[in-house]
Write a structure and sequence with these properties.
The complex is a heterodimer of chains A (226) and B (490). Chain A is an all-alpha fold and 226 residues long. Helices cover 76% and strands 0% of the residues of chain A. In chain A, helix 1 (8-29) runs antiparallel to helix 2 (34-59), helix 1 packs parallel to helix 5 and helix 4 (102-123) runs antiparallel to helix 5. The radius of gyration of chain A is 18 Å and the shape is globular. In chain B, helix 3 runs antiparallel to helix 4 (100-118), helix 11 (269-292) packs parallel to helix 17 (406-432) and helix 12 (297-318) packs parallel to helix 16. Classes of the chains: A mainly alpha (226), B mainly alpha (490). Chains A and B meet through helix 4, helix 5, helix 6 and helix 7 of A and helix 5, helix 6, helix 8 and helix 9 of B.
Chain lengths: 226, 490
């Protein structure tokens, strides 16, 4: 397990990439302009690609270069492009009805990160040489999970909900680069393609929503009640 | 031999998809789909028997043909066959002639992904197969393109994709836990996870299991993650509702069962079973209460699906040979019976032009034959003898009383009575209530009755037979599954 033998330079590179990714999630949480979400997501994806490359370089997993390139291409370019097209087509520039104001959203997000840290700290007790990077990766993985669900639940616009889902996925992807770099290559590649299909499907559905339901805000999608 | 059968199993729906998309001819598409579905059904029976001598693993251990997976595949093929026959009679009355080839291509694609999930040996690829079922079925749910069905499709994809990422997180954490035991690189198979499970830090193992349970539980419709289910089931075309309820829920249940077998034999196994029992009984009770107060006919069926998924979770949670046998027998019976119920609901909905139960009256006058089948099916799905669901529920109940979860067994009995009364009260109203003159609905006479009644017979007869006689061969299958679930034969 190479992660326990990181020197301090490598550890700080991994940590800073991961932490900045988490900060970008807060950018999404603290803004209500749809374009900002997409930009933040794009930058976050590039950081994750850089992280994959860094893990591949320092820990000796050359196949991670492939993942890094594909992440940068799909998550960093294609997905933001598709999302921007959806945003442009919708003529909705921002979240209008905020259940949670951006400022209070940031506070809730901060609490979620603390909660994630408590869990991560507990889960890594078994490793005697628990590198700080491992705790950090687990914390960020879980916090992005929580914040993604928070965004799904307090945002109304269809695009925000898609981005909420993508944040959930980014969290897992980021964490797994550090925790399980040896995860079979095939799975990671297929998950990347899967994401592309997901967003394409969302794009088609959003168009249907506009045409057949007349709205893309979940606030007005209330004919069905579960 | 198993390879060849498997090859046919996947080639048939694939051929149907290609034919539908290339020829773009509605009649060709529907007959190709029916043919593919019947071939799949014919193949999946010998496939189950092949696995009785032990699991077959091939293709760099990406494919695993075992009794558990093929049994679920059999249930899926049955629903695929029944609902593709029904679809011929149902989809023609929707006036969507030019979009029918697309419908059948998606329909077979949906079946293909579910069947694929059954034989996946790699935990990550299994997750992807389940995710693909969501993406394809979303468009089937929204096929009618009305405001409600589009909304249902949207909610379905958001809730289920969000939920299923929890299962992915659980999978990654399982793999991470295993990497402390098996080294940083190993094949991500069910067997490998099981091998390492007992030596993984147990709280981590428990958290991974719970994440996987909640993730696949969202897809399986366990309460409280079931919120997408009534909307999607009630807004999609009737054959799709049958596929969602009778086949998709089983495929997700397979994921839960596999993870349950991964943690079996470890110290969290007991807790995992308790979690299953709690989710099961909660789904069951909640669905029972909603069944009593329901006014939409297809929503009634949808909540009944939540109820029966709860029963299956209870069976797996109670565990032991009886619990596991009951759960998987219940899976088969539920697939048959719920298809029958959705077919009847589709007939009634189209003939009366409403989804509301108060608008449906004097069903027997409108449908003398299929109405009788629907009523008998309702008696069956409410859990009364001599139909098959009674036997499987009774078996699960025996497992519950014998085991440590007697409180759950007691609740189970009480709410079975609630379901029985609540469900049949709606049917009494639809069949025997007097409707006042102005209330009396306008009934449309619809063509292609035979296509819609034949699958109801085909579903009903096995329910009756399996209710009277539990074939001995099935015991061998269930014994095999329960040994595998207990961690043997991995």
């Amino acid at each position: 397990m190479s992660l326990t033998h990181l020197n301090s330079l490598q550890a700080s590179i991994f940590s800073s990439l991961a932490i900045v990714s988490l900060l970008l999630t807060f950018v999404m949480l603290g803004s209500h302009w749809l374009r900002n979400y997409v930009y933040a997501f794009a930058v976050q994806s590039w950081l994750i690609a850089a992280l994959s490359a860094a893990v591949g370089y320092f820990s000796g997993y050359p196949e991670l270069y492939v993942i890094a390139a594909l992440t940068a291409l799909f998550r960093g370019l294609v997905l933001p492009y598709l999302l921007m097209r959806i945003v442009d087509r919708l003529h909705v520039k921002r979240e209008i009805h905020a259940v949670l104001q951006p400022s209070s959203g940031l506070v809730v997000g901060a609490f979620l990160v603390m909660f994630a840290f408590v869990i991560a700290n507990h889960m890594t007790r078994q490793t005697t040489s628990a590198a700080h990077v491992v705790v950090l990766a687990l914390t960020i993985m879980l916090s992005m999970k929580f914040i993604g669900f928070l965004m799904l639940s307090v945002r109304d616009e269809a695009v925000s909900q898609i981005l909420g889902l993508l944040v959930l996925e980014n969290g897992i992807f980021l964490g797994s680069q550090i925790l399980v770099p040896g995860m079979p290559l095939l799975i990671e590649i297929v998950i990347l393609f899967d994401l592309l299909i997901v967003v394409a499907c969302f794009g088609i559905l959003v168009r249907y929503l506009v045409v057949h339901a007349g709205t893309t805000s979940s606030r007005q999608l209330n004919r069905l009640v579960g | 031999m198993a390879q060849h059968l498997l090859f046919v199993l996947f080639l048939a729906p694939l051929a149907a998809i290609v034919l539908s998309l290339i020829l773009r001819h509605s009649r060709v598409a529907e007959y190709a789909t029916v043919a593919a579905a019947i071939i799949d059904l014919a193949v999946s029976v010998p496939l189950v028997m092949q696995t009785l001598s032990g699991p077959v693993i091939f293709w760099h251990s990406y494919i695993r043909v075992d009794t558990l997976g093929t049994w679920v595949a059999l249930c899926i093929s049955i629903v695929y066959a029944l609902s593709s026959i029904y679809a011929v009679g149902y989809m023609r009355i929707l006036d969507e002639e030019e979009r029918l080839p697309l419908f059948y291509a998606l329909f077979s694609g949906f079946a293909f992904t579910m069947l694929a999930a059954c034989v996946m040996n790699n935990v990550g690829v299994f997750w992807i197969a389940i995710e693909l079922t969501t993406l394809i079925s979303t468009f089937l749910v929204g096929f009618e393109r009305e405001a409600e069905s589009t909304e249902a499709a949207w909610k379905y994809i958001i809730v289920v994709s969000g939920g299923i990422t929890l299962a992915l997180l659980g999978t990654v954490l399982f793999y991470w836990g295993g990497s402390f035991v098996l080294g940083p690189r190993y094949a991500m198979t069910w067997a490998a996870l099981h091998r390492s499970a007992s030596r993984v830090y147990q709280p981590l193992l428990l958290m991974s299991f719970l994440l996987a349970l909640v993730g696949y539980g969202t897809k399986a419709g366990l309460a409280p993650m079931h919120t997408w289910l009534p909307d999607a089931h009630s807004e999609s075309p009737a054959p799709v509702s049958a596929m969602l309820s009778g086949a998709l829920l089983n495929a997700s249940m397979l994921g839960i069962a596999r993870f349950l077998s991964v943690v079996s034999g470890t110290s969290v196994s007991r807790f995992a079973h308790t979690a299953m029992v709690v989710f099961g009984i909660f789904s069951f009770v909640l669905a029972a209460l909603f069944i009593v107060r329901q006014s939409g006919i297809k929503r009634l069926m949808a909540y009944s699906s939540v109820e029966h998924i709860g029963v299956q979770a209870l069976g797996l949670g109670f565990g032991g040979v009886l619990g596991v046998a009951g759960a998987f027998y219940h899976m088969l019976n539920h697939s048959l019976n719920k298809s029958l119920m959705f077919f009847g609901a589709g007939n009634a909905m189209r003939a009366y032009g409403t989804k509301e139960i108060p608008g449906i009256r004097h069903v027997l006058k409108t449908f003398p034959v299929s109405g009788t089948l629907w009523l008998l099916g309702a008696v069956g799905i409410a859990g009364a003898p001599p139909f098959a669901l009674f036997l499987s529920e009774f078996t699960i109940l025996r497992a519950g009383i014998a085991g440590p979860y007697r409180w759950a067994a007691v609740l189970f009995v009480v709410f079975l009575i609630v379901v029985f009364v609540g469900f049949l009260a709606h049917f009494r109203a639809m069949y025997f209530d007097e409707a006042s003159e102005e209330q009396l609905p306008q009934v449309r006479r619809l063509p292609w009755v035979v296509w819609r009644t034949l699958p109801m017979w085909l579903a009903f007869l096995p329910i009756l037979v399996l209710g009277l006689w539990w074939p001995h061969g099935l015991w061998d299958v269930f014994l095999k599954i329960s040994v595998a679930m207990a961690g043997g034969g991995q």
